[in-house]
Amino acid sequence: MKQPDELRQLPWPLATINLSPSARLRHLVTGALRTGRPLAVWREPGTVHPRLVVARTLEAAYTGLPPALDATAPAGFAFFPFRDSDHNPALFLPADVLFDVAQPTTVAVATAARSLIPALTAWLAMTPVESTAWPYSTQPAPHAATKAEYSALVRAGVAAIEAKTLVKVVSSRAARWPLAPDFDPLVAFADLCEKYPQAFVSLVSVPGVGTWLGATPEVLAEVTADGTFRTMALAGTQPLVQGQAPNTAIWRQKEIEEQALVARYIVSCFKQLRLREYDETGPRTVAAGELLHLRTDFEVNLRQVPFPNLGTDMLRLLHPTSAVGGMPKQAALDFLHRHEGYDRAYYSGFLGPVNLPVAGVSRLYVNLRCLQLRPSEAILYAGTGLTIDSDPAREWQETELKLTTAGAVLHPMVSSSV
Ligand SMILES: C=C(O[C@H]1C=CC=C(C(=O)O)[C@@H]1O)C(=O)O
């Protein structure tokens, strides 16, 4: 299959050949941090080995439009905020330097980054040094809502639904958790990979923007090697009871409706594009860490429909989906802008590889169950879909549960190899 455009494979030098694949990843990450370059490390659901992309410069990572999901578009890692702003720029880290832990004998360098080769070659041959500091956002820490404040937000959402201004809205909040003094983002990343084998696990670090870590269950838009487009409607939450088979879960009317609205929104996007040939499976109950959700999967065989740009068009229509914004979309976004009282930044934005590891394969996820690192604390984020039947205490409890997905790795866990 075609590789992303013209990569030059640098062999891993003999001088440091004894480094394990994960030590090589760490060495490359340290190099990127020390030279102030944006980087993204990710591990795809159901796989074991992470990949790394390093962009040649910060400037090269700024972008305007959402990425194009076609095989001829640039390869890289997209990192988009919930809402574009100067504080939270849309980013696309070009795959200038690419490392796959599954193929640790080479490091790939793109043509645009050829000038990095001499310094990179020298760095690879050097004995690894201690990691340097990870970048933090230059913005002040967002306000962390109290239970009373969050309950007031939920009540305002329910009132807007009762008044028929909105059908559904997904309110959210930030929480501040202390970090252990020896907290290591790469160890936390490895812990997330181990704890959530079916999640898309990511660690993204960009000078001035900050460092984000997460394990999300929600696909936003995916184009696979066999020419399939996929998306999903994920909503409704309940705790996974130890030993319970997900398919035995019983859902309340409230969650069934909440999820059905997300599915309906996706169908309306297909309709806008006049696409009728899609497969819809579900809703069924799926586990995401310690939680259960309702999920409907949508699939389109791109080889059988006259829509070569379906992935790109759907991405632009879908974000932000009603699983993180609401319905009607614009009214829900306006409500959140007015009432939520904090900046979501990259939480509930989207992220993931485009045309990686090969052209024609892209996997974008909604940035949920994530946190942002700051010098001695992490900012965690969680939201809940509100409907007319929402109860503030239950919604607060649901956010508490969601916070524990990423929060689980903030405290020392079983040792990990990275
Ligand atoms: C907004 C979040 O989750 C979304 C995805 C699944 C279930 C959800 C819910 O039950 O409200 C949310 O729509 C979050 O994790 O912060």
TrEMBL record:
UniProt protein name: Chorismate-binding protein
Gene3D superfamilies per UniProt: Anthranilate synthase (3.60.120.10)
Domain Chorismate-utilising enzyme C-terminal: 147-402
